[in-house]
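Following up on my earlier message about 5'-deoxyadenosine. Here are the inputs again, as you asked, copied directly from the submission form:
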Amino acid sequence: MAYVHTYGCQGNTADSEKLKGFLHQMGYGFAHSKEEADLVLYNTCAVRENAELKLFGKIGELKSLKEKDPDMLIVLCGCMMQQKRITDKIRKSYRHVDLMFGTYAAHQFPELLLHVLQSKKPLIENQERDNFIMENLPVERESDFMASVQIMYGCNNFCSYCIVPYVRGREVSREAGHIIDEVRQLVSNGYKEILLVGQNVNSYGRGLEEPLSFSELLRRLNKIEGDFRIRFMTSHPKDCSRELIDTISECGKVCPQLHLPVQCGNNRILKEMNRNYTREQYLDLIRYAKEKVPGIGLTSDIIVGFPGETYDEFLDTVSLAKEVRYLGLYTFIYSKRDGTKAALMDDPIKDSEKAKWLNELIDLQHQISEEINRSYEGKLLRVLGENPDSSEEGFLMGHSDEGLLVKFAAPIERIGTFCTVQITQGRRAVLLGNLCDKS
Ligand code: 5AD
Ligand code: SF4
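Thanks, got it. Here's what our run produced:
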């Protein structure tokens, strides 16, 4: 039995589904905990330091399990393993790990595992090379109604704080035909939500034999027959065109939703971050999106306390969040990543001070989220039933097309179906409602 745990972004989740596909082909079943497993695999994330610290704790915990069962295999892969500093540390201080491989070697997983089993020696595979695309890898999907489909790999943007371009390599896009075939197959197998995944989906299609824009890809996917919806992430504002917003508005299957990370609202810091847009350009885009797609669900990522950021500059982020009125925000305190440009910059503000700024932003966002959620009271929303509510029997949780989290009373059979829900109460983090269809 294998236990697979994934840290980080949608890209890692999609990779893990392929690694599980390999494991399934090799004859492994899947365990719900590491204690029941004879192979433990952690797919790691390097974006922020706390993800790293967490992983070291987890690897430490595995030592006693391995002492009890020396045949147990411990495998680490993903972004952290692409960094030599990390694999060196693990080799030195965590000698119970059997196999480490980086993001470029994921497709070699079965060979690497076989090598470890035959040689009975630990193995590290983390060479750098160009990204390339392998089609038709086996995949073991977590859900039978929501699927992530990777449309591109890597990132070319080199935002100055970010490690991703170093551990995931340069951008490459999958051929549109392969993506369309995969989505068509998923829809014919009953999938209701397709999440298109890439670090910067707006630059999809560059370098393909038949170059095509992300908007065109969406239009082609929108033509696939069937009752399903399409989401995508992540969009980079510098490449997010008005054409993309027109496409969202014109394609019925594309959700009226946009995750458009701004990172901060101050032009000097945006420049230092190497984001390649200004606050004004970003806000223009948001205005256009609100006008073209009324009710569009907007979300964003924000980094607080970039090196050299002052409190006054941070207040520009607060005022931007007030102006945009996001449904929700993913907020992070800046985390220094060795090897990035920002890691060399002076960073005089203490994390404890940055945490205060962060809380100020979170408090504001809570207030905005609650106001937005209240404005839905009495309205009907289309919600995909996703899972039972863990705290109250008879209730399901799901997301509306615009990305709102909804809790509603419905039978378990409605999981994996679209439900029409009338909202009765908007709370800060969730909308409550009643099912009002009978299908
Ligand atoms: N520190 C803090 N947050 C970061 N992110 C990326 N790199 C860092 C970093 N060094 C955040 C960005 C990105 C999200 C996935 O993670 O907001 O959009
Ligand atoms: Fe990192 Fe910027 Fe690329 Fe996103 S666009 S993965 S933040 S470098």
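One observation from looking it over: The first helix runs from residue 10 to 25. Hope that helps, and feel free to reply on this thread.
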